Structure formats: structure tokens, C-alpha cells
Amino acid sequence: MKLAPTPLLPQGYAVPASRWDDPAARLRRLLDREPFVFAPGVYDPHGAELAMYFGFPAVYFSGYSFAIGHLGTTDMDLYTGSEIADAARRTVSAMRKFQLTMALGDPEKGVAPKHLEIPPVLVDMDAGYGNLFNVQRATEAYVSAGVAAAHLEDQVTPKRCGHIAGKALIGAEEMVGKLRMARAVADDLGRTDFVIVARTDGVSAVDAPEAARGLDLAIERALRYLDSGVPDLVWCEFPTSDRGPTERFATEVRRRFPEARFAFNWSSSFKWFNDPSPITFAELGELGYRFVFITLAAQHAMSYEFSKLLQGLRAEEQDAYVALQRREWQVGDDIPTRSHHLFTGVPYHQAMGAVMGASRLGARYDEKLGEKAV
């Protein structure tokens, strides 16, 4: 890993030089080089920072998770494009800051610097929040937010989660127009590497202009989108975890487009634990599914663990939180959030406060309390 200095760190500290790479160009290199790129699904900066800490090559910013985490509602176009674009912007900004705080460590406590790459972010653009001119506005916001990629789906507006009944499709020609607009906006802004993913909900749509239905419609739609020359990846939303449709879709599309690449939602909607042989990430990569993600990974993990803590607090009161801390601080386990001060960059802010000459910042204002109590 090549390191480079930055004026946002004290002298003698450095960050990975990839900090200044175009994230879309980096994502393209990953797609070219790796058998597949896996991205955990997050909905806020905190989850993205954790994915970054543990070295995941990319991050998926989930629309459904965003709806749950920020509005407490479902995935039926109930948030606006500007809301999720701003959340994505804050997430990218947070990871850039997190890279700085980890690159400093905590000099006062002997915590060594940790050099983290910033993973490129793919963001849900739903159906573009309207017609192709809404897509124009949304794409400009996404590109300006510093994300690497976005996916656009062929549902009518307002859309709904691909695993909620009642989906209807716009015409394929309208979808192609939206894809072309997204590409044109990114190119106009000088982000020619911006990655565009075309998603089709043709497999389970109940209404579409075509006579074909089911997987045949999804394959037809994928071919038409690839014919436009715009999508870098195609995503077919499947209604079940069955291998057959996943394999057939890839095979049929690659008959005409042998180099076609796909995205795959290893969906939280499926009860994978009931599948006797769940398809693996590696198997998906061999089929051409080069970008693999779990949309609601962070949401389900947070909800499960917090539910367990709340149940414990109801039954055991303070003892439940003591038990949580014991697990957090278990020797040998790498839980970066157990010191929320370190994770959020208090040492960085103190150090840079001293460097910049800010009042009431710097080590001389540290209370120096005992480690056992703090």
C-alpha cells in the first residue's frame, strides 16, 4: 500500500494514496480484476465505516435500509432522491474522515495508525424518482456526492421493493432513455468512469407493456438495455433463492453479450437457512455476477443485536449491559466501536486542534482519567 501525506494530518502521518483516486475508476478496476466484488448493504455512515474498517472492497447503500433506518417505513418510494443523495454524500464524507482518524490512531495511548482504503459506494437510485429529467437531477446529485455507481430500475413511479407484490414496469424504451440520461450526466460532469447498473423487475412484475412475463421478460429487458450500450452491469431481481433462474438468466444474456456482467442481490428477503444448497458468492462470480451485495445486511444485524440487548435490559436491567461490555472488550476480538472515542476520532480532533491552534483542543485539555473507569 502506497502512503502519502495530507495537510489534514499532523506531520509524520500519512494515508493511502488511493484517497485521491476516482472511486468509480477504482470500482471498475476491482470488477476487472476480482472474480466478484462483495459489498455489504448499509444505510448510514456508521455502517459504512465498519465495512471500511474490516476491509470490504465496496459498500452498497441500500434504499430499503435507508427507508427503515431514516424514516422508519418501507420501500415504496416514500423518500425523495435528494434525501438519499444527501445520505450518500454524508456517508462518503464520513469515510474520508474516518480514514484520517484511523491513520492517526491514538498517540497518547500507544494505539498505532491503521491505514484503511476507502471503499467505492454503489447507491440505490430506485426508478429515478420520476421521468428522465428527474433522473438527470438525481444523477447529478449522486455524482456530486462522490459515489462510484448507482442502479436504476425499470418500475413505474412510485416503485416498490422487488420483493413486494404489485410491481409494474415502464416501457423498455423509456428505461433506455433514463439510462442514457444517467450516462450523459455523469459524462458531462467529467465522471466518465461512473458505473451504471440497469435493474429489471421483469421476473415478478404483474404489469408490463410486453406480452412476455416472468424470466423471459427479464431476459428480453436485459438484452434491450445492453443493446443501448449504457449499462456496465445488469441486475435481475429474482423472487426466490432458486439457482435455476439465476443460472438461466446469465446463460441466456451471455449468448448475445458474452462479456456481460451482472449484479446480484443476495437478498435478505430469502430464508437462505432453509435452502439446502444456497448459491455461493464464488459460484455467482463464475456465472458473471461480478457485483454481489446483501441489501439489508446492516439493518438486520443491528435490529437483531439491539433487540437482544433490549430483551436483556427488560429482564436483567444493568446486568445485560455489563454482559454486552464483557463481549465488546473480550481480549483478542477486534471490535473497533468498543472505544467510541477512538472510533469517532477524538484523538484526531485533539491532535489536529493543537496543530491548527484551536482553543480548548489538544492533549493538554485531556482529563487524564484512569483507564479502568473510562
Tell me what you see in this structure.
By secondary structure, the protein is of the alpha/beta class. It folds into two domains: 15-295, Alpha-Beta Barrel (TIM Barrel); 339-374, no CATH class. Helices cover 44% and strands 11% of the residues. The protein is built from 13 helices and ten strands. It has helices at residues 23-33, 45-53, 63-71, 81-104, 132-145, 172-188, 215-227, 243-256, 281-287, 297-316, 318-328, 340-344, 346-356; strands at residues 3-4, 15-16, 37-42, 59-61, 121-124, 149-153, 195-200, 233-236, 262-265, 289-294. The strands form two sheets. It has an eight-stranded parallel β-barrel with strand order 3-4-5-6-7-8-9-10, surrounded by ten helices. Strand 6, helix 6 and strand 7 form a beta-alpha-beta unit. Helix 4 (81-104) packs across helix 13. The chain is globular.
CATH fold topology of the largest domain: TIM Barrel
Overall average pLDDT: 94
Strand order of the largest sheet: 3-4-5-6-7-8-9-10
Gross geometry? globular
What's the number of helices?
Answer: 13
Which structural class best describes the helix and strand composition? alpha/beta
* CATH class identity of the largest domain: Alpha Beta
Largest sheet: 8 strands, parallel, barrel
Radius of gyration: 22 Å
Catalogue the unreliable spans.
none
**Helix amount:** 40-55%
User: What count of domains describes the coordinates?
Assistant: 2
N/C terminus separation = 34 Å
Relevant CATH superfamily of the largest domain: Phosphoenolpyruvate-binding domains
The CATH architecture designation of the largest domain is Alpha-Beta Barrel
> Quaternary arrangement of the chains shown?
single chain
What percent of residues are in strands? Answer: 5-15%
Q: How many strands in all?
A: 10
Q: What order do the helices and strands follow?
A: EEHEHEHHEHEHEHEHEHEHHHH
